[in-house]
Write a structure and sequence with these properties.
mainly alpha; elongated
Length: 51
């Protein structure tokens, strides 16, 4: 019987890679917000960085 709460090693690696990518995207969006003048782009970036 398969335990649904246990992830395979490759699944954990995939989750780790996704989290690293999202963290990098958040950091970049946060840094770039002060340089963006287009309001539509600024609104889109604000959705990505809610704080």
């Amino acid at each position: 019987m398969i335990n649904p709460q246990t992830l395979a090693p490759h699944e954990m690696m995939d989750i780790h890679e996704i989290m690293n990518f999202k963290t990098a995207c958040l950091a970049k969006s946060k840094m770039m917000q002060g340089l963006v003048f287009d309001q539509d782009l600024k609104d889109l970036m604000q959705k990505d960085v809610p704080y």
